[in-house]
Amino acid sequence: MKLQIFTTGGTFDKVYYDALSDFQIGDPMAPEILREAGVTFDWEVEGLTRKDSLELTDEDRELIRSRVAACPARHILITHGTDTMTKTADVLHDIPGKVIVFVGAMQPARMRTTDAPFNLGFAIGALQVLQDGIYIAMNGRIFEAGKVKKNRAEGRFEDS
């Protein structure tokens, strides 16, 4: 398997600087997590944006769409902020011949208590068995794009 990872920022890559939650989007954390896990498949990471997902624009989503559509890899993972992950997934709805999985985190990967490594590994495992389509991997579940929503009050994703 050759895996293409596109990063967009979001909580997955956030770095917090003070108690008032001032943050910036740091370098992508997926490469560090994959190296620590000792994965044995080929992967490549390309950063597309470094934004909180609430700041993503239609132009950013078009960039994501164009890079995914042009990518020769069949297996594509997109790290993305959880607040608008479903909206970006909808923009990719008609890209054929690819397994595309969005993944994010409720806590930054740099924090000691985080769901990021679990979510990333879970998403990569799912990529290897899913049929072509667009999916969201969060909270130990796989959701089809267009059939999922974020429950902010509960801090999880669920069927819509």
UniProtKB/TrEMBL annotation:
SUPFAM superfamilies assigned: Glutaminase/Asparaginase
Domain named L-asparaginase N-terminal: residues: 3-154
Top-level taxon of the source organism: Bacteria
UniProt-listed Pfam families: Asparaginase
Name listed for the protein in its UniProt record: Asparaginase
Organism: Pseudomonas schmalbachii
